[in-house]
Amino acid sequence: MRTLTIAALTTLHADRSAHGPGRAPSIAECLDAARAGRLYDVDTQSAGYDGLSIGDDADDVIAEWAEACGVESPRGWTAERVGLAEGPV
Question: Which among 21, 85, 86 has a CA at the least distance from the CA of 52?
């Protein structure tokens, strides 16, 4: 699990969102999901589909992400849980 400040998560969200619609839920949803331990940063190993997703399990997030991207075999893809740091930003 990677723990980010609000500022770092906002930057990550902007980076993922810049690649097109559907790459990340709204920043408010991402912040809520990170607080709840349900936000994942999906890395598609240079396949060009990296993004943020909300879910309960990394394997399920990868499967859902692959289906949404039209990829049958997401071999090597990872989904790292993103948490939100407590305290000052």
Answer: 21
